[in-house]
Amino acid sequence: MNFFKPYLEFLLGVSYNVMQTLEALGLWSTNFVVRDKTGKIVESYWSITEAIAVPFFVITIIFFVLVFVMLFAIRILAGKKDFNLHCNYCFTRFFVYCKYFAEF
Asked: How far apart are CA 51 and CA 55, in angstroms?
């Protein structure tokens, strides 16, 4: 788990920066309001964790898409230059499995 810790901290930091930018532009808020059934404000609280949830989710999806694109590009470039990388077998097996599961 320690391997993923720097990546998680990076994604959380980026999410926090995006949230601060959106809040400065007036498009996002870290202040949340709780209302009762009649619509009156009962409670108000500040939560940074709730505020960065959506930016964190979106940035994490973008991160994984970029990683997949980079792995695919590495596989194509390694194949064109006729490199016999040890990872080439792993990439080939990965795409075989993806094709197998896509058929379902």
From this structure: 8
